């Protein structure tokens, strides 16, 4: 059974409440329950923090014992050299995901400190971005 963790960054705890026109009306926990049911043969976990250092610590913890990490570092994607360095320093492949199309938003969101170290990036498919990330680990090219 593949072991995959989803790590979410700042403000993603507000999914379902925050800007539903961009992020939808489901909470992440509601969405997570649906994907756990859809992928019963995958050991799925998730972690969310608004604190940069906690995200780095979780990457270090998962980065040598999981088969895949799906990382939505949210705003830290564009600002955190430390998270980018953490992704570079671990063995587990990381897929960077974003719910919104970051290239359709403010210019500062067009840069990622994660992407140069990621297996790939998925942006703009709503919560389905996470499912596409899972599929990338189950059906490698």
From TrEMBL:
Its EC number is 4.2.1.10. Pathway: Metabolic intermediate biosynthesis; chorismate biosynthesis; chorismate from D-erythrose 4-phosphate and phosphoenolpyruvate: step 3/7. GO terms for biological process: amino acid biosynthetic process; aromatic amino acid family biosynthetic process; chorismate biosynthetic process; quinate catabolic process. The record marks 18 as: Transition state stabilizer. Coiled coil: none annotated. The active site is at residues 23, 98. Keywords: Amino-acid biosynthesis, Aromatic amino acid biosynthesis, Lyase. The keyword ATP-binding does not apply. InterPro entries: DHquinase_II, DHquinase_II_CS, DHquinase_II_sf. It is an enzyme of class 4 (lyase). It catalyses: 3-dehydroquinate = 3-dehydroshikimate + H2O. It comes from the Bacteria. Gene3D superfamilies: Dehydroquinase, class II. One of its GO terms (molecular function) is 3-dehydroquinate dehydratase activity. Substrate binds at residues 72, 78, 85, 99-100, 109. Homododecamer. Belongs to the type-II 3-dehydroquinase family. Catalyzes a trans-dehydration via an enolate intermediate. This is 3-dehydroquinate dehydratase. It comes from Bizionia arctica. The lineage of its organism: Bacteria, Pseudomonadati, Bacteroidota, Flavobacteriia, Flavobacteriales. The gene is aroQ.
């Amino acid at each position: 059974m593949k072991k995959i963790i989803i790590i979410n960054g700042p403000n993603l705890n507000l999914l379902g409440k925050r800007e539903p026109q961009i992020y939808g009306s489901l909470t992440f926990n509601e969405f997570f329950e649906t994907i756990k049911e859809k992928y019963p043969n995958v050991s799925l976990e998730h972690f969310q923090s608004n604190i940069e250092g906690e995200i780095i610590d979780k990457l270090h913890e998962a980065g040598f014992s999981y088969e895949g990490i799906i990382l939505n570092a949210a705003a830290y994607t564009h600002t955190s050299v430390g998270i980018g360095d953490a992704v570079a320093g671990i063995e587990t492949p990381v897929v960077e995901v974003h719910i919104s199309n970051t290239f359709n938003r403010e210019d500062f969101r067009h840069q990622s400190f994660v992407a140069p170290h990621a297996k790939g990036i998925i942006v703009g498919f709503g919560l389905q971005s996470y499912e596409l990330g899972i599929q990338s680990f189950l059906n490698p090219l």
